[in-house]
Amino acid sequence: MAGTIEKRGKNSWRYGVQVLTENGFEWVRDTASFPPEMTEAQQRKKVEVALARLIADADAGIVKPTRRDHTVASFSEVWLEEYVIPELSENVLKTYKNFLSARILPELGDRPLKKLTALELTKFINKLRTSPRRSTRKPDDQLKNPRSPADCAKMSKREGGTLSLRTVCHYYDCLDSMLDKAVQWDVLRTNPMQKVTRPRVPKSKAQYLTEERAVELLRCLAREKNMSFRAAVLLAVFCGLRLGEVGALRLSDVDWENGTIDITRALKYTPETGNFEGPPKSEAGNRLISLPVGLMAVLHETREYQRDIAATIGDIWKGEGWIVHGWNGARLAHDTPSKQFRRFADKNGFQGVKFHSLRHTHATILLANNIDAVAVATRLGHGDATVTLKTYAHALRRRDADAARVSQSLLMKAGVSFTAANEKPLDLPDAPPPVAPSEYCAVDILDDIPAPVCVP
Predict the structure, then answer these.
(1) SS3 89
(2) Which of 206, 238, 258, 324 is the most buried (most CB within 10 A)?
(3) DSSP letter string over 333-396?
């Protein structure tokens, strides 16, 4: 296998070799630069050595041709391998793979990356708006437990519908992220998605329980015999934890003297990996949360229960100190507490309330009771209190009513009233006579003297 050497500049060289691929012969090239004090003969000798090494690596399959003209499909593989897998979570990787395989690659996969236009991408995004949903749910006969009434109602509502605007936005963001990396890696000069309008999604309101309904829920929860389930719900209601954060908690995360719990992990799931532990949703998700005395009592009871059962059943006990666990101490699947809560909610008159609604309830009650937004954001694991205020703006209505009462107290202290009932009526001039219906008048202004001009 022979190679080539080219002098590209005063002290720079390019060398390469052609290798046989399924698409024919393709080049494997590299460049070399040298300090100006080296003679051309010395430089060439070093390049020849480098070329010999490149040929050997090409023969061994260590180096492969670099594809200059990527298609959307070929670049998506590079993007997943070099950026998404090393930098993002398993769940994000799963989502991006689904978006690519479901709609992006079938529609745009063979398109040369450099020939993508803003108009073409705009048409693709607009087509998604009218694309039908694809159901991935299992048939009823393959389910371990029957679907809840809330699930059945949601399914019947979605049947025959199109993709939601939120899903279309997720597709937009996937393409935008991939093409941004193409620009960053000098594969593209500009990102055509920058000229594509992102769909506007109406912000969905956070579903939460009022304080009165939350009290009702706690009274119903007290009748539940499953200690693990009770702990899971209380951690969400009193700490605002996410479902995955609840599932990853161990008793060792509790500071029993100071009454706090350390959130550093979250239980996650993908079909490829199953259940696994990972970091919380964001960096701010690593946090220390103070616990109410009543919840500390529940955790003390959980610890004593696990000690007693482990001593009783011996090797059958599989527990590793999980706060939320199965009958033998083993860790539950990621979504098991959510399914348990759905059945509990349907049974006790809280239809449609989700496990995540408990987190929203926690934040809403705190803000409505004048707890500082920064403190609430810290408990929730938000990196910016502005996000907290935007998400839970509804909770500030009660504080706004308090502000109105403070303003009223100021009026009461002044001892005055500004209503018309307490004032003398004003002397108003008599109204001018009405214009006859048959006449239409305009007014000319000449030397500041109004002069009626009538048009018959």
Answers:
(1) coil
(2) 324
(3) PTTHHHHHHHHHHHHTT-TT--HHHHHHHHHHHHHHTT--HHHHHHHHT-S-HHHHHHHTGGGH
